[in-house]
Amino acid sequence: SRSHRIAVIPGDGIGTEVVPEGVRALRAAADAFGIGLDMVEYDFASAAYWQRHGTMLPEGWFDELKDYDALFLGAVGWPDVVPDHVSLWGSLLQFRRRFDQYANVRPVRLMPGVTSPLAGRGPGDIDFYVVRENTEGEYSSIGGRIFEGTERETVVQETVMTRTGVDRILRYAFELARGRERRKLTSATKSNGISQTMPYWDERVAAMAADHPDVAVDQYHIDILTAHFVLHPERFDVVVASNLFGDILSDLGPACAGTIGIAPSANINPERRYPSLFEPVHGSAPDIAGKGIANPVGQIWSASMMLDHLGEPEAAAAVLRAVEEVLAGDRAALTPDLGGSGTTASLGAAVAAAV
Amino acid sequence: SRSHRIAVIPGDGIGTEVVPEGVRALRAAADAFGIGLDMVEYDFASAAYWQRHGTMLPEGWFDELKDYDALFLGAVGWPDVVPDHVSLWGSLLQFRRRFDQYANVRPVRLMPGVTSPLAGRGPGDIDFYVVRENTEGEYSSIGGRIFEGTERETVVQETVMTRTGVDRILRYAFELARGRERRKLTSATKSNGISQTMPYWDERVAAMAADHPDVAVDQYHIDILTAHFVLHPERFDVVVASNLFGDILSDLGPACAGTIGIAPSANINPERRYPSLFEPVHGSAPDIAGKGIANPVGQIWSASMMLDHLGEPEAAAAVLRAVEEVLAGDRAALTPDLGGSGTTASLGAAVAAAV
Ligand SMILES: CC(C)[C@H](C(=O)O)[C@@H](O)C(=O)O
Ligand SMILES: CC(C)[C@H](C(=O)O)[C@@H](O)C(=O)O
């Protein structure tokens, strides 16, 4: 029977609470569809590991992880112990870069049973993808300070975009749009204000559009685009964006669709040279960590995306159906963020049972 | 009697349609309150000027404008004629920089008569300010391309933050918060991903917070902050942000409060060494330009902010009250974006009459 090797990395805060529920759903799907899952758990990429070792990852992490079929991550970040930019640049952002997971794919969907904060929107009204460039752009380690600690203190940070990096994410997004019914692609830009990189982004969008005449293309500056997410979410099908703009849109989109708590993401290396990484959009949420009330659906939906990527579309669909069934069912069974009185574990168990 | 000299710059597209309504409201207020207004109109900072002269501004623009008491701008940008980054860097962004208008102040308020896209929100529920750094940060002219036109093409863009630039906008925002009832300040950051400039921003916020113990401070990464705008807009009082983040939040905020069409902005040089600039948040809107249906309220509300800055608080309040009265009145009198069947001119006339 088919078998997949998965590295499980719970990380920090509610990551450690929702990952077990993702694993539970994975086991249920594996049992139901006769799939072998070899899951190995790692304690690195966490503040606890940092406290013991002074680094976020062990020296040999790349070789240790590179032959897995996928990485299943919770959330990283515990600012009371280690500053966020240190913990994230020391773990998640390394995974994305070193494993060349350049396509960060984030579905935005108003699910049955979930209430949108937008008036008059029901399931089916919001259903699109944010495709985020995941390795370059505004997230760059280049930069630093001069005249430190003085009145002349100046800090610079370099955004870097490359032909390779921009074209491959655009191609990925155009192909995704091409395979969907509406065949529509929206590009997030800010070429009126950001004078070098964003006009370049627009040029490459235009070039890629010429190669994809069957995809309808439009573009908006990021400021007005966020407004349209709120005012006209039904307009969007595939939204492609730079690293930072994609980061913003993939939190705003799920908020418009009710909650960040259920939003999944896939950090994909499309060439499959390295493992892809699956994680919820939400973070470690220090404010609710340890209470057992975190919503595990983002993690479980990420598990579904992982199964799909592993070539298990039926198991993936079963997990997503189970999520939909539970969300649309008894509201009391849901976690408090969805208006219920359930716990992380009870909601996770309900989904696993529905698989 | 008091008298003020104002440079009026309609710009492009709907800028040329809404500015006359702003002027009409200004004249009405001047009459009612015995204020002298000396308004001089300029045709530069427009695509038409660009077509004739090949530049957005005449050579002597700085000296021509620097002694005005204020600048009253419509909107700049007509991408069919001149690329946005060329027209904006050649006009509006020059004004902001050369006249050191470092505080871009943008009220976000759900007005009577306006429907929020957010379920269950009424007037009073959304009422805060976005204070945007307006001269440095992500909007920088530093950068360029290497290996142009080849597969190795690489584009860089430098974000620059300075102690001077960051501290003065934070101080402005803290002082604004201090003068309000809730005394609450929210900082927009992204220090987990943007590794140099945003951790610096956070440090300066912490330092400024220590100097303002009477202001309650919190901070959110920009991604989750956009989500909170949609899910919990009532939480915000004064939101301070870098140039780019402020740009995004000051479109998203007004969208949550119903429409971008009514949102005003003040580009302030607090030291009054140079004229401040007042303009609506919306742009030139090529899609609806020339139809006479653009909403003039953003321009008129900007006129109110200008009167306030000029030391005419009563006239400013009268204009804002007139706006509120008309918005809360007969819906049919409003422009189509607000569900009415009125025109730019009829709505402008109604506000002027109410002044
Ligand atoms: C037109 C554009 C350059 C401008 C900006 O990005 O600052 C506008 O969006 C604004 O918010 O004033
Ligand atoms: C934690 C943070 C560095 C990360 C990002 O900005 O990419 C997160 O917000 C995300 O969206 O995956």
From TrEMBL, chains A, B:
The keyword Chloroplast does not apply. It is an enzyme of class 1 (oxidoreductase). Pfam families: Iso_dh. Its EC number is 1.1.1.83. GO terms for molecular function: tartrate dehydrogenase activity. InterPro entries: ICDH/IPMDH, IsoCit/isopropylmalate_DH_CS, IsoPropMal-DH-like_dom, TTC_DH. Belongs to the isocitrate and isopropylmalate dehydrogenases family. This is D-malate dehydrogenase (decarboxylating). It comes from Nocardiopsis endophytica. The lineage of its organism: Bacteria, Bacillati, Actinomycetota, Actinomycetes, Streptosporangiales.
